[in-house]
Design goal:
It contains 14 helices and 25 strands. It is globular, with a radius of gyration of 25 Å. The protein has a domain of 44 residues. Strands 18-15-2-3-21-22-23 form a 7-stranded antiparallel β-sheet. With 560 residues, it is of the alpha+beta class. A hairpin with a 5-residue loop joins β24 and β25. Helices cover 30% and strands 19% of the residues. α1 crosses α2 and α11 runs antiparallel to α12. It starts with a strand and ends with a helix.
């Protein structure tokens, strides 16, 4: 028996996934992203080595399932190497939680969504195999999480799968999975996104119920779903129309203003970056809760031009900049245009008026962030790359890590990223050290962070051609050894640069002023500048404080 302790994340229920089909990407990659957001945990990199297993072997589950011991899943004869959320075949699985109807959670089911995803990664060589694996696992062992949107990708295909339990003590789940068109982009962010979907027809494999999952590997299959996904909704009173009109989202995750504004607004902003802005702004009534005018976003769109991996990384740093929801454009951003906001999400003033704050893609509570690239024209071990780091995507540099590696860089190892103790050996804490200096004086300091961020990422991107050339004629074992060492060097380089950046920031911005530098960016012994406030904040001072801070006498003297 193998006893595997999986470190699960509390409150990781506010995540964002962006997805790009291979014909929608600039280089033919399938790509997806993950901001794993939730207070109270420090990000780190999971690793599960490949291995052969004896008949009758079992794996112990220690996740979000029942608290008592003695819960096991039957092991399979062979499991694949998994680093982060990508395996050695470039299969990648990421998620966001939508909760949905909380009465459908079965706390006695064995498998939470993270256990489910990781088991599927260990057992699947394609996205289709992963979907089949997850469907069979929840049917056999039960599902205990709330509603999830799950992205499943491999070097050729991208899928979105949505799943929700069937209530207390009911094994299994209801779910649906759709293949995303190769020339499209998709996203999900804590709200169910699948509405109507094609239903199975006789002599057609374009869609399948779970009764026929043995046919899932047929290339013409583009939709699969639980056989009772509609009948169960009827039984529960969630739906009473014609089967053709059935909407998974409307049955299992009814919308309201909050879940649309906090969740689908992130999808809208991503789409808006890569499509006609005026067309996307027609969905603003939906984001404002005017569901009689519009009640959904498209599940996917064809972008106006192919996306690069760099585009996707910048999308993960979004705070609605240059949109009607821009978080830097009014006095709520404070004196220095801060694009993040403290919790709670909603609050009330002294007169009992309720307010809310926006929830962007990039957020301070991220435990880790990743942009995943899967390339069909390369050997798997070098074709699959997880660009990874701990903490807020806006405030970190993405570090490339190859899917074949068997050694996790020290700064990303769980034991070096404690939740409650600062460590200079921890990527999470080094990134947080810098980020929490920059947040309060964002517009003043972000340029220095961007300089370090771009310096690292530009180097990593430029170095990829040399990596491909170096491994071209290597044996698989030599390739793995080379890529292990390369990934470790990349991570070490990031940690050294961030240590240098942290020390630079505390000297340059000490005591609320900006120390002057020479043309070589070396600090001058004397001399500083006072930064002042941004105009959005200055313009709000008068309306908020009246004459409290007016220099009336000085102004009158100058006028005379």
């Amino acid at each position: 028996m193998v006893n595997v302790q999986w470190s699960m994340f509390n409150n990781a229920q506010a995540c964002t996934n962006l997805i790009v089909g291979k014909k929608a990407s600039a280089d033919g990659s399938v790509m997806c992203t993950y901001n794993c957001d939730g207070f109270g945990f420090s990000g780190s990199l999971f690793h599960s080595p490949a291995g052969q297993h004896a008949p009758g072997e079992k794996i112990a589950i220690h996740g979000w399932g029942p608290s008592h011991e003695g819960q096991f899943v039957d092991q399979v004869p062979y499991t694949y190497n998994v680093v982060g959320l990508m395996n050695e075949h470039q299969v990648t699985i990421v998620e966001s939680t939508f909760d949905g109807r909380l009465e459908l959670q079965n706390r006695n089911g064995l498998l939470d969504y993270f256990s489910l995803m990781r088991l599927a990664l260990q057992r699947s060589s394609t996205a289709r195999e992963a979907i089949k694996c997850m469907a069979e696992l929840v049917e056999t062992y039960g599902y205990n999480s709330t509603g999830e949107s799950i992205t499943i990708c491999d070097p050729n295909e991208a899928w979105i799968m949505e799943i929700v339990g069937k209530g207390p003590d009911q094994k299994g789940a209801v779910w649906v999975a759709l293949r995303i068109p190769d020339d499209c982009i998709c996203a999900h962010a804590n709200l169910s996104r699948i509405r109507q979907f094609p239903l199975e027809q006789k002599r057609s494999y374009k869609s399948l119920s779970s009764k026929n999952l043995q046919h899932i590997n047929r290339p013409e299959v583009e939709c699969v779903y639980a056989a009772d996904v509609i009948s169960f909704a009827r039984e529960k009173g969630f739906f009473n129309g014609k089967d053709a009109d059935f909407s998974f989202r409307d049955a299992y995750c009814p919308i309201d203003f909050e879940n649309v504004r906090y969740a689908d607004a992130r999808v809208w902003s991503f789409f808006r970056h890569h499509y006609d802005e005026a067309e996307m702004d027609k969905y603003l009534p939906y984001l404002n809760g005017e569901f009689d005018k519009c009640d959904h976003l498209p599940l996917w769109i064809k972008p106006d031009k192919p996306l690069s991996l760099k585009d996707l990384q910048e999308d993960m740093r979004d705070h609605f900049e240059n949109t009607p929801l821009d978080m830097t454009a009014d006095m709520t951003a404070g004196p220095w245009g801060m694009p993040i906001r403290p919790l709670p999400m909603h609050f009330r003033d002294a007169n009992g008026v309720n307010y809310f704050r926006e929830r962007p893609i990039a957020t301070q509570q991220s435990g880790f962030t990743m942009t995943c690239q899967m390339r069909s024209w390369l050997p798997n071990d070098v074709g699959g790359v997880t660009w990874f780091n701990c903490d807020d995507a806006d405030m970190v540099a993405y570090v490339p890590l190859y899917c074949c590696i068997t050694q996790v860089p020290d700064c990303f190892r769980p034991e070096n990223n404690p939740r409650t103790e600062f460590s200079t050996e921890s990527a999470f804490w080094m990134n947080n050290w810098v980020a929490n200096m920059v947040y309060p004086r964002y517009s003043m300091m972000i340029g220095d962070l961007r300089k370090a961020q771009h310096e690292l990422e530009d180097f990593y991107f430029a170095d990829q051609d040399s990596v491909l050339a170096a491994v071209e004629n290597m044996t698989p074992a030599d390739r793995r050894d080379y890529l292990n060492k390369k990934s470790i060097r990349y991570a070490d380089q990031m940690m050294k640069r961030w240590d240098k950046l942290a020390k630079y920031l505390i000297v340059k911005y000490n005591d609320q002023v900006v120390r002057r530098t020479d043309k070589n960016d070396e600090f001058l012994r004397w001399g500083y500048e006072t930064p002042g406030y941004n105009y959005e904040f200055i313009n709000s001072i008068g309306s908020a404080t009246g004459d409290r801070y007016k220099l009336k006498e000085v102004i009158e003297r100058r006028e005379r």
